[in-house]
Amino acid sequence: MSTMRTVKVDGEARYDICIGPNLLGDSTLLAHALRGRHALIVSDGNVAPLYADRVEATLRAARPALTIASFVIPPGEQEKTLARFCQALDALAQLCATRDATVIALGGGVVGDLAGFAAACWMRGIDVVQLPTTLLAMVDSSVGGKTAVDLPAGKNLVGAFHPPRAVIADTTTLRTLPGRELRAGLAEVVKYGAIFDAEFLTWLEHHADALLAGDDAALSEAIARSCEYKAEVVSRDPYEHGERALLNFGHTFGHAIEAEQGYAGAGSAALNHGEAVAVGMVLAARLSAALGHAPAADTHRLQALLQRFGLPTVIPAGLEPEALLARMRLDKKAEAAGLRFVLWERAGLAKIVSGVPDDRVLDVLRGR
Ligand code: ADP
Ligand code: ZN
């Protein structure tokens, strides 16, 4: 019996997100997603030794005549650069000087974003198949078509909307994912409950232990439901003109924390993206309550769930409220008259609020 789950993304771009154990070995699935006579596997130095051979063998079983090359970057966000992007294009140029190729992104969000952007630009766009291997990439970055690299001036400043041809999330790969990375992904899972569905928060509360233990069925369910929420939003608003912005719940605060810590070469004491978003969601919930939009009890519930997942919920020591506020004002979403935030009315119902005065934000950053 197959335990695979499929979530369909509709609208302008249509593709399937397949979720389940051992999917990297499923040649029928990969063959279905593959076009052209060439494939470039893009991966990183942690993931490639674990899974690249298997993907290559599956591709060969699917298409014996396929030419396969690989491009492997060192792991880490600091590698999501224009220089690596150029190297990926060089790898494509060596593989084939035509559009007759598919890029296979095997890895976490860094690999997915970089490979997706290379696919978007190579000869004005070829297919990318996303094979996410982190929980964060499975529930967030591999879905929705945002691709990018970073500049010294900030994250994701150069990129394109380029939806994948397919997303194949093999949940078995999560067994080798470091626990801290798994927990970071759970922060984005919690986000979907926080903004779209209080009942999903209840489900997460009931399945927290199973999820932390890496239980396949619980993880598949959490991933499938997260992808359903995201698929629905990006189907209706692929270019983030409206409701897609709700997915940024916790991210205005979270990005400020990440920026203030410094992205490049951040030590293990620095929060990763999911951890920063966990803190950011609690701050957003507290701001909602302080502005009279939401009950304080919901903030406590959110905080308790994140803590259960081993995630931080307070601003790391050493980060100054004024400096964080200044970061948020620099953020591209800032407006002249106050900041814009995704807040909530209650658990499971988010809304966008503009013109939030600086002093109210500072109060929350200061823990008042
Ligand atoms: P994210 O998906 O969280 O945006 P990354 O792409 O940086 O971030 O991946 C996080 C880290 O986990 C990287 O060091 C990456 O090499 C490693 N990694 C990704 N997937 C796996 C896996 N399935 N097993 C082991 N390590 C992995
Ligand atoms: Zn995020």
UniProtKB/TrEMBL annotation:
It comes from Lysobacter auxotrophicus. Residues 185-334 form the 3-dehydroquinate synthase C-terminal domain. This is 3-dehydroquinate synthase. It comes from the Bacteria. Keywords: Amino-acid biosynthesis, Aromatic amino acid biosynthesis, Cobalt, Cytoplasm, Lyase, Metal-binding, NAD, Nucleotide-binding, Zinc. Residues 71-183 form the 3-dehydroquinate synthase N-terminal domain. Gene3D superfamilies: 3.40.50.1970, Dehydroquinate synthase-like - alpha domain. It is found in: Cytoplasm. The gene is aroB. Its cofactor is Co(2+); Zn(2+); NAD(+). Catalyzes the conversion of 3-deoxy-D-arabino-heptulosonate 7-phosphate (DAHP) to dehydroquinate (DHQ). Its EC number is 4.2.3.4. Zn(2+) binds at E188, H251, H273.
